[in-house]
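Closing statement on the fe (iii) ion sub-project.
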Amino acid sequence: MSRRSLLAPATLVTALIAALAAPMASAQEKVLNIYSARHYQTDEALYSNFTKTTGIKLNRIDGKEDELVERIRNEGASSPADILITVDATRLQIADQLGLFQTVQSKTLEERIPAHLRTATWYSFSTRARVIVYNKVAVKREQVQSYEDLAHPALKGQVCVRSGSHPYNLSLGGALIAHDGEAKTEAWAKGLVANFARAPKGGDTDQIKAVAAGECGVALSNSYYVARMMRSTKPEDQTAMRAVGIVWPNQASWGTHINVSGAGVLKHAPNKAAAIQFLEYLASNEAQAYFANGNNEWPVVKGAVAANRELESLGSFKSDSLPIGDIAKYTVAAQKAFDRAGWK
Ligand code: FE
């Protein structure tokens, strides 16, 4: 207001025309509202490229997974959110069970995202593996070839792992139930607990460091934490990584458990068309590289490459081919099995 009063009359007319035209322009301006639980620097380029190519303005709200889910629930039908992006199949499954997503039709997504990495409502855009990290002095590589091996009595007092309530372990539990059944998975969890070197604490990186320091002989970690430690320029991280070996679990059986980063269109999305357009964009080769590399993960689209030397140096492996949505369905049962086993 005060600025306008300073304008010369001719400029005032121009300003008035501009002001009158403004509502029309904003009605036409395409926007997309994203609730994101991903916080990686390379994601900035990912988002700005979308706006550059489509003209759709992105409004992003960053938050913790659980808080964003709670917020979407509370906002209900008046939620401005179009898309929820988060990590871990368990969390995507929880959001789905709460009825937060809607089904979308997209030939592009169907063609580009492998069938086992999508559900009716949410899609995976990158994968990470749950790997075994062992101390090269304390444990023989042959001893720790599978998740099941970690429950073997020979590893008594050797296992470090984060909480049994954490989604990463629950998703793994879901995979174990899908392959081995509930009874066997509970017995496995009991064996694992009996082998603990210490009560579960910290995140995956803490487990890698504890293995390197010899506090435990073996641990579970998501692959991107391993790659992150490998890329670290800190001398202590480099020393730690020299002390540990990495195993792709279950190569002789059902394959290494993989988890995902994913997204879905929300039920009350005000900008549904733009939301689908964004998911299709995430499935493009260029966006796949950004999306995966942001957290040292693998692209899901065949032919998409994330140039990541550390990740590539880990080599290739056989991954579990069960549909990710099926694995996620067993995570509630996994939590109950872990509770009964005393895996806090
Ligand atoms: Fe993580």
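The radius of gyration is 23 Å. With this model delivered, the sub-project is considered complete and its resources will be redirected to Aim 3.
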